Amino acid sequence: MTAGTHQMKLALPIEHVWSFISDVNNWAYCIDGYIHHQMINPKQSNWKIKGDLGVVQRTVQIKVHIMEWKKPNKIVFRFSGLQGKINGNGYFKAFDNNQTTEVCTHISIQLNGLKGSLIRPVLKPLMPKIVKRLTERVAKEITQKHPIPLA
Questions:
Q1: Residue 32 and residue 130 in contact, taking contact as beta carbons nearer than 8 Å
Q2: Domain residues for 51?
Q3: Number of structural domains, the chain?
Q4: What is the C-alpha separation between 14 and 10, in angstroms, rounded?
Q5: 150 in a domain, yes or no?
Q6: Predicted TM-score of the model (pTM)
Q7: 110 domain-assigned
Q8: CA-wise closest residue to 45 among 61, 68, 32
Q9: Are strands 44-52 and 34-41 parallel, antiparallel or unpaired?
């Protein structure tokens, strides 16, 4: 399994972070290669994503299932490819630190089959960067919705 984790601090209270990450519709488009998603119910959605690893490009459809919502600090999800060649999991965690919030994002992905064995070595060094970009995009969106007040 290939994984990446990224942590950063936001100068916002945890409630603002939770109001954003608790709704998949707010952060789905922050994923690299996002094309679109469709909500099946509040805990399940189908996504279409274009994976671009330079020499390898492929559009995949995945099913995302929210496994745990723990207000105000944790969302845990798993995902699987509709063709069965991809599966994985991830989370957003938020840690209250007075009027700042530490945000941690993690994604693990398993690619199966012959193509998966060829792509894994390319994806492994990219996963930390992919998760970092996701975390930074989510942070940017949250701060745009809740601007930091000037002193």
A1: yes
A2: 2-145
A3: 1
A4: 9
A5: no
A6: 0.90
A7: yes
A8: 61
A9: antiparallel
